[in-house]
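Protein Entry — a single chain follows
Next Lines — sequence and tokenised fold
***
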Amino acid sequence: MPRFKQDPDTALVQNLLNATPVAALLVNEELRISFCNKRAASSLAWTQDELEGQSILNIIPERFHERHAEHTLAYMANPRPLGMKFDRNVLAKNKSGTELPVEVSVHPIALKSGNYLLVSMLDVSDKLRAEAVEALNERLYESASIDSLTGLPNRSAILSVLAKAISEQRRKNDGLTVAFLDLDGFKAVNDELGHAAGDEVLKRVAQVLQQHGRRSDAVGRLGGDEFLLIFQGLGDEAGVRKVGESLLRSIETINQCRGERIHIGASIGALSLDVDAKLSPEQAVQIADELMYDAKRHGKARLEYLHYSGDCQPC
């Protein structure tokens, strides 16, 4: 098959393509490879002499030939620069038939010897392997930081969120409240209906807490029937009570489980931190926990509140 006519125009293009760091092909109007650079030959496991003159279809998996022909005809009718990022169907094939995921760009180019398509290919096998490893690491991190029953952040994760919120509070002073929520009547559900029913209730409580939260709020499960909520920007005690008491009413609407009537509620200890409050996340949770027990001692299904300033001493 004839290749480039050797003239200064085509010789310059050959030199430029050999210097480029990506695989590059020049494809003629008959869709044959008129020239390939060294990187293309190496990537596809051919020699330059072997590739030049072949149909472009020889480096495309056979199941994509028909689609490629349709796309090429449409493209040739309206040639323009075209970039294609990798998806499952952008694949090249090397000499042995092994398929390679690639990102491709196509540009029309007119030379003295004729009209061509400049096809650049980037093998993204390493990139995809790295992305797969990253995705696996993310899944492993998620499994280590998410409570498997409720899908909420677990104790470690929500304490990390709280640590960040405390740091930002000292800088922004936009109001931070830590609320410790413990269910009332949950033990009776476990004892009378079984732990599977108890798990169902915990999942429904988690849904309620998520649905009633604002975008700036965070909620996590500490363990058992204990949850931690982090509110920002609620302002004074009245704002905290309004949100907290709304949550209490919503939890009380969970009154059926597996066809049986149940009676559950919640008690909340809410601790608002002053910008000068010097507390660690663990100390803030401990104080909110003590406030929650005050709520239980005072009759349950209620919220106990404390504003903690920098003048106070942590427990």
Summary: Residues 125-145 form the longest helix (21 residues). The chain has a mean pLDDT of 85.
